[in-house]
Design brief:
By secondary structure, the protein is mainly α. It has a domain of about 50 residues: Met repressor-like (Arc Repressor Mutant). It is built from four helices and no strands. The chain is rod-shaped and about 70 Å long. About 0% of the residues are buried.
Amino acid sequence: MPSQLTVRLPDDLERDVSNVARKLRLKRSDIVRMALEKFLQESDIREQEVPYKNVSGLIGAFSSGQPDLGSSHRDHLLKRFKKHA
């Protein structure tokens, strides 16, 4: 069963939705549903839901040359700062 969503619209937007619905002989809910579907398709939100997809090609692609960089991160930074100070 489809879920229900209640949305409050400003008067001018509600008037526009009602006018379009009347001209197309559709329900206002159909117009809102169509607008939401178009928005989601155009904004490509569905593809960006999983950030991993955006960086999956980069994981493991670069090397720092430091085998213990994760566990000794602070030590490596301090050495680098002292070297340039």
